[in-house]
Amino acid sequence: MKAAVLVFPGSNCDRDLATAIRDVSGQAPAMVWHGDSELPDGLDMIAVPGGFSYGDYLRCGAIAARSPIMRAVVEAAKRGTPVLGVCNGFQVLTESGLLPGALMRNAGLNFVCRDVALTVATGESLFTRGYEAGETITIPVAHHDGNYFADAETLDRIEGEGRVAFRYTGQVNGSARGIAGLLNERGNVLGMMPHPERRIETAHGGTDGRRLFEGLLAAVA
Amino acid sequence: MKLRIVVTLKPGVLDPQGKAIEHALGSLGFSGVGGVRSGKIFELDVADGTDDAAIDAMCRQLLANTVIENYRVERA
User: Fold this and answer.
1) Fewest CB within a 10 Å sphere: which of A91, A102, A203, B43?
2) Residue B32 at interface with chain A, using a CB cutoff of 8 Å
3) Domain locations in chain A?
4) What's the gap in Å between the CA of B24 and the closest CA on chain A?
């Protein structure tokens, strides 16, 4: 699997994502700097990592979403290249318009850093085909701004189209309808607040995150 | 030309920071504060003659996230 991981000033999960992709696919991804305006050719996936790009200035992910490389990512996503955004990466994807809605300050105002239980809402997508719909998995979160917001009409539409990938089983951050992970209309873009790259080997306390990368690898290989 | 851009959360969008500030005002003994909404102000120094469409584009493309925020432009 030929992958690229974006790197912004303030990204801090880029190497974790690269390790997860390399472990699962056997191929190290290209690390692509935010100031570049072109992606490597023939990518099977693009990963947008977690962290605090540009110090979360203005709004989380807002400045990163306007960086030169994101123009190339938006074009690639429109051509159908799979794009995975985790945590700050999810925020970047909403700010860039690839996913609807916005991620706001956690309802409890606290930074939440712990394992959370998620329900897999669809097993049909490129990213969730390694799971069964309805299954409960455990993946950690670490964020201050994961409170998903969209207007009721948008929420109804994305639920009706089966675009919710993961939901929190309990209260985590105030997210509308418990949304933890969301797909675009075409199903080739996934944004999620939990960190699958932090659950890829037993030493991490479980491997529920690994199956996301394995499923994607099987889909694109 | 000086501009002041005021960005506020849309009505109905939960503002946990505003809520926390409201509680803090109550803790300080100020009664009768029925609600607090937080926002942002940007002061821009732009070239004279910058047209309204360009200013509006700056707000829409970057300064405000129109999914959750409204903005208004004040000219100094």
Assistant:
1) A203
2) no
3) 3-220
4) 14
Strands of A179-183's sheet in order across: A30-33, A3-7, A45-48, A83-86, A189-192, A179-183, A164-168, A112-120, A136-143
pTM of the entire predicted model: 0.94
φ, ψ (nearest 5 deg) of residue A209: -75, -30
Structural domains counted in chain B: 1
Q: Where are the alpha helices (DSSP H) in A66-209?
A: 68-79, 88-95, 152-160
CATH number of the structural domain spanning residue B39: 3.30.1280.10
CB contact under 8 A, A109 and B17: yes
Span B6-16, pLDDT tens digits: 999 999 898 98
**ipTM strictly over 0.90?**
no
**Which chain B residues contact residue A101 at CB under 8 A?**
67
**Surface of A (52-81) touching B: CB under 8 A:** 58-59, 62, 66
Query: Which domain range does residue B71 map to?
Result: 2-75
pLDDT in tens, A96-153: 999 999 999 999 889 999 999 999 999 999 999 999 999 999 999 999 999 999 999 9
Whether B17 and A62 lie within 8 Å, measured CB to CB: no
* Residue B5 pLDDT greater than 80, yes or no: yes
- Which stretches of chain A score pLDDT less than 70? none
C-beta atoms of A66 and B63 within 8 A: no
Q: In chain B, which residues have their Cβ closer than 8 Å to the Cβ of A106?
A: 16
Domain A3-220 in this protein, CATH class = alpha beta
Strands (DSSP E) contained in chain A are 3-7, 30-33, 45-48, 83-86, 102-104, 112-120, 136-143, 147-149, 164-168, 179-183, 189-192
